[in-house]
Design goal:
alpha+beta; Quinone Oxidoreductase, Chain A, domain 1; 5-stranded antiparallel beta sheet; two-stranded antiparallel sheet; 18% helix
Length: 152
């Protein structure tokens, strides 16, 4: 398989530990899709990983959400196909040209929604939904202000 560009770090620290490098692509296995990353979400957890606050195996490619186009699928995959526009959250390695993702972590991006928008929404959208559905369910007549929708 060819290589793909990636931003990764081999030691924890500030932004200076981030390195642009090339990593080898892997073939998708059972239940996986290889996706060309169009956009990657940037979240606080990425800085926690980089700084060492949350431990990860090194070297590590940050980025846990993004959106892109499926380029290849494992032999048994039927829920996504080559050419599909997808988004994901909770899949590490999105700061790269390609990511290998389990297909059950992929969301179909509807026609008319750009991949840039699709990459920016999943984590914050899921958090907002969780808060108004489970933490403090909204009732008819309730009002809710969601601030810091971009993180924080």
């Amino acid at each position: 398989m060819p290589n793909t560009p990636a931003i990764r770090f081999a030691e924890t620290g500030g932004p200076e530990v981030l390195q642009i490098t090339e990593v080898e692509l892997a073939e998708p296995g059972p239940g996986q899709a290889l996706i060309a990353v169009h956009a990657s979400g940037v979240n606080f957890i990425d800085t926690y990983h980089r700084s060492g606050l949350y431990s990860v195996d090194l070297p590590f490619i940050p980025g846990s959400e993004g959106a892109g186009i499926v380029e290849a699928v494992g032999a048994d995959v039927t829920d996504v196909a080559v050419g599909d526009h997808v988004a994901w959250v909770g899949v590490p390695g999105s700061y790269a040209g390609h990511v290998l993702a389990p297909t059950d972590a992929l969301l179909s991006v509807p026609d008319g929604v750009s991949l840039d928008i699709a990459a920016a929404v999943p984590l914050q959208g899921m958090t907002a939904h969780y808060l108004v559905s489970d933490t403090k369910p909204l009732q008819p007549g309730d009002r809710c202000l969601i601030h810091a929708a971009a993180g924080g």
